[in-house]
Amino acid sequence: MRVPHGMTTLVHLAPIWLLPALLQRSDCQGLRVLAISSCSLHAKADSPSLAERALAQRLSEAETALWALAQRDGHQLTLLRPTMLYGAGRDATVAPLQRCIRRWRVLPFPALDYGLRQPVHVEDVAAAILACLDNPRSIGKAYDLGGAERLRLDTLARRLFSDNGLRPRLLPVPRQAVALAISLLRRWRGSHWDSALLQRALRDQVADNRAASTDFGYAPRSFDGRFPPVIQAGH
């Protein structure tokens, strides 16, 4: 794939590590480039999971390569790093919980002392993209993007019930039982989950929206746990 000749603006929504090679194959100079990265670059850099640390490293290397290409070829680069995305029924965190609640009206949930999360709606990220495109203040910068609320994961789960007019019904599951279930899923179904998931659940994973708010008026919505029109089936 190549950047079409004559293009002046490139919005890249695919995994960010694909973008450096795309720009290197292009003979375009001075593109306006806006790309989606991830707050996982920070949140997972010291994760107890080898796979998550590798992801953070991959994101970091891609961003470093993009800044170098922007300087070399005169691209006007902006990077956006969302936190936990939700809202389209396709994400890996909120959507599976919504599927379970909609079907069973109860949600088994590990009994842990959870850290904070700051889920951001996909429409707010889309609005941020549009706000940045013609905003010179955003050029040469990277912005973390979170939602308006910071919630413990168990509080978030309860909101998925109440936002849909349902009485919250969380079924506490002992940590040891969850660890065993994760181990069995990895062995029998090749799940990407591992025991580090439980350790990371205890940590805060939030974003500072102040720079985005100042530079391009970023104003995300409060968490909205209503079921989207379509919640895609899990894999």
Radius of gyration: 19 Å
How do the strands line up in the largest sheet?
A: 1-2-3-8
Provide the β-strand percentage band: 15-25%
By DSSP, the count of extended strands is 10
* Helical residue percent band: 40-55%
The helix-and-strand class reads alpha/beta
What do the pLDDT scores average to?
92
Principal-axes geometry comes out as globular
Q: What is the straight-line distance between the termini?
A: 28 Å
Biggest pleated-sheet summary: 4 strands, parallel
Plain-language structure description:
The structure is a single chain. The protein is an alpha/beta fold. It is built from nine helices and ten strands. The longest helix is centred in the first third of the chain and has 24 residues. The protein is globular.
Summed up, what is this model?
This protein is α/β, with parallel strands linked by helices. The chain is built from nine helices and ten strands.
Helix-strand blueprint:
Blueprint: E1 9-12, H1 19-24, E2 32-36, H2 40-43, H3 50-73, E3 76-82, E4 85-86, H4 94-104, E5 107-110, E6 116-117, E7 120-121, H5 122-133, E8 141-145, E9 151-152, H6 153-162, E10 170-173, H7 175-189, H8 196-201, H9 210-216
Parallel strand pairs: 1-2, 2-3, 3-8, 4-7, 5-10
Antiparallel strand pairs: 6-9
